[in-house]
Structures are given as C-alpha cells and as structure tokens.
Amino acid sequence: MSTNSNDIPLGNLESQLFKIPEEDLTELVAKLERRALDPSKAPGVGKILDQLRPRLAILKPQRQATLVRFFTEPFADLLYTTGEPRKPVGRIPRTAIVPCYKLLQKHSEPSRIERYQQDLDTIEPDNDEALMTLGTGFWRYASGQLRRVIDEAEKDKLAKQALIESLGDPFLYSALKEIVGVLEVAVPVMELRKALPSTGMSHVTNANLEDICVALNTVHQKRPANAEFVVFVILARLRNPAMIVEIMQRVEEAGTLADVSAVTNVANEAIVSQTEEKIRTLGEKIQSSTSCKSMALQAEAYVKEVVGAASAIGNTGSRMQSRQVARTKTEMADLVRREMLEAQDNLTSANMNSLGGSSSARDQIVAQKGVEDRIISLRIASRFANELDLERDVNRRLAELEESVAEQSKKLLGDLKKRDYEVLSPEEAERQLFTQVRLTELLLGPEIANRLRLDGEQLLRDY
Fold first, then answer.
1. First vs last Cα of the chain: how many Å apart?
2. Domain end position, chosen among 197, 217, 236
3. What is the DSSP string of 413-444?
4. What average pLDDT does the segment 274-297 reach?
C-alpha cells in the first residue's frame, strides 16, 4: 500500500484527502476500522474517519464487514458528528456507537456475538436477502439485551448513574435509548431505507408514500410507540423538513393505522431540535470556511432549512415550538451578522485601501481577490437577508463598496488625464483600470462597467 495512515499527520489529512488513490483509501479505511475494534484506539480512529467522510461519501468504498458496523446500519441515517455534548431529537451522535456497542458486548454471550460475526463474514456484501435474515435475528437480540439494561437503569437511580458514567456522557444515555428504539423496529426501518432515495428527497412519489405507509403500519402493529423512528428516518432523507407536513397529511388520507397526529407532533419536536442544532453547525462551517463566498453559501443553505422548519411548525406545531424556531432564526441572524458581516469589515476596508493606495502590484491583486470575494458573498447574503432581517446590514455594506469603487474609478480616470508616468506607469494604469471594471461589474452591472472600460481605454490610448 502506497499510503500509510501513519504517514499523514491528522492536521494535514484534509489537504491530502483527494490525493489518496481509491484503492489505497479502501485499504486504509479497512485497517482503520479493524483498529477501531480496540476500545483504546477507537477515539483516535474516529477522528481520522471523520476527516475522511467527504471522500468516502463520493467514492463509497467497500467497508469492513464488522459487527459494530452492522449494529449501526438501521440508524445510519440518523448519525451526525458533534463537537459538543448535546443531541438533537431524532439524531444520534457518532460518538455513541462505540460505547453503546461495548455495552452490548458486556451484556451478551461472547460466543453468540462471535457467531454473529462469523455469519457476517460468510455473507457477500451485495447479498441483501442474507444480510436482512442475519440482521433480523441480530438486531432483535441486540435491542433485547440493551432494553433490559435500560429498564433496570430506569428502576434504580444508582444503576442509571453508573450506566451514564460507563457511557461517558449524559447525552449518550438519550442516544442509547434512541438506538434501542430503532433496533426494535430495525427490519421495517431497513426496508424503508432501501425503498427511499438515499438523500435530498425534493418530492415524495406515490410509491414512496406507499412504502412509508407500510413502514408506519408495520411498526404500529408491533410497537406503536416506536413509530417516531420511522419519522426520523424520513426527515433525514428530506431536502426540506417542511415536506413532512404534507407527507403526514397524505399518509392520513391513505388510511394508515398509525396515530398521525402523534407522529406529526414528534416530527415537529425533531424539526425544532435539529433546527436549534443548526446554529452550532453553521458556526463551525463559518469558522472553517476559506472564503467569504463559502461562508455565504453555507449560511444560505442553513437559512433555507430554518425557513422550511418555520413553515412546517407554523402549520402543525405548537406555539412553543413556533417560538423556538423564531428564536433560532434570531440566533442565526446574530451569528451571520457577527461572524460573516462584521468580522470581515476591517479586512474589506484594508483591501479597498490597498487598491486605492501605493501597495505593490502583488498586494493589490490579493486585495482585489478579497474585495471580489466580499462582493459576491454580500450578493449571496442579499438573497436571504430579508429572512433574517439583515437587509439593512447587507445593503449598507454594498452601498459603501459601491461608493468606494466609484471614487477609486473617478480618481484613476483623473490620474490618467494627468499623464504622470512617474506616479502611474502605463502597465499599472491598465491593470488598475480592469480591476475597477471588474469590481464595478460585480457591484453596478455590466453597462456601467462597460462605460468605465471605454472611458479608461480611450485615456490609455493617449497615455
């Protein structure tokens, strides 16, 4: 293998991610997953796999057929990576996998766990029927063992505290209960996961609706209280969470046996909770962004989700849930104003001064790229500013840039008329002209930019 996991420092892994050959990446992931079976190494391996996920999502290499991975399969849609100890409703942190699986091992017959792994090793990865047959028994056994642990903990405060301490964090206890809830209805959940599009559902077909009804009815007949986990899987697949309202209405019209009002309320709770989590996630995305444009695009995507959540809650949610979403919008507006708008003001001002001053050509090129990036980000922000009541903040910054660029363009044309070659060489004059043309085009449109170009080129011919 040409790429060794020990050769790439964790901090540099992101920059090397798309340079690793596919074959080597597959082998690397398999080795890492085998290493993760050692509890002492699992946390470090988890950090590496988190950095590999963007590439894995594209390539989807064959993963190691381990029982712990098979254990997580029914709730795979609900997994997320968290940077702090809190858990939104309907989502399960990846950090819960190893502690909960270790708990299963602790309360299981070692020979039975070993037999499940041996059976898994004999099944071809694409043999869905055989995997489902194995899973039917394994997931039932796993949920039964873990449910007994939870039931005992709920009866005894000391036992519950000991269990929470063994898991490592209080919020992992909530994750454990949701994991067990999904595993108890793993077969209909897995059948629904297989039937629905993997991600980003923008509409629900009649066939999708039929599959959803089958899943809800199957779960309702066996474990009515677990119907919420079907809803969580559906939410995880939707591009816009507001779609869940229409889906539940159509499910009710189709005559489902499940309590539609109850699962709709659960869906609303999940939407509110997951929307609140967007604030933290957006903050992380902004902090890791390499450009203003990237920040703005991230913010726009999250604003669309929050707006969709507000729409869904507004139709079927409680007043408290509506207030929670409204508060989330306010917090998101504060975050965007503080981290995306105000935090870039000084740099933008410095870049504009570089363009209009005596900085080196290299510095001015860097400044131009910075100003262009800022203008584009503000244009993107203007598309969602009204949703966050940030129109005045965005428009003021655009107006200030327009005024600065107009003043610099006017000054440049004046300098060209003076023909002072010692102050401004013809080459530098031409470069500055097309910088101003480009910025004018971004701010004021192509017609005004073209007039500036024609005026400047006329003066350059006589310069």
1. 62
2. 197
3. HHHHHHT-TTTS-HHHHHHHHHHHHHHHHHHH
4. 85
Element (H, E) at 104: helix 97-106
The helix or strand, by DSSP H or E, that contains position 176, with its residue range, turns out to be: helix 170-184
**Using a CB cutoff of 8 Å and minimum separation of 24, what contacts does 310-314 make?**
311/242, 312/241, 312/242, 312/243, 312/244, 312/245, 312/267, 312/268, 312/271, 313/268, 313/271, 313/272
Tens digits of per-residue pLDDT, 41-70?
766 777 777 766 665 554 554 555 789 999
Distance CA 364, CA 374 (A): 15
Categorize the per-residue pLDDT at 10 as very low, low, confident or very high, splitting at 50, 70 and 90: very low
The angle, 0 to 180 degrees and rounded to 10, between the axes of the packed helices 227-237 and 170-184 is 100
CA–CA gap between residue 178 and residue 91 (Å, rounded)? 8
Residue 9 lies in a domain: yes
* Domain-embedded: residue 52: yes
Structure tokens at 155: 């009866």
* Domain carrying residue 414: 346-461
421 or 294, which is more confident? 294
Residue-level pLDDT at 392: 96
In the chain, the number of structural domains is 2
- pTM score above 0.70: no
Residue that finishes a domain, picked among 177, 197, 217: 197
pLDDT of residue 114: 94
Can you read off the two tokens belonging to residue 279? 């604030």
Residue with tokens 């965005």: 394
What angle, rounded to 10 degrees, do the helices at 361-384 and 391-418 form? 150
Predicted confidence (pLDDT) per residue in 27-39, tens digit: 677 677 667 666 5
For 42, 356, 424, the CA distances from 421, given in Å and listed in that order, are 66, 17, 5
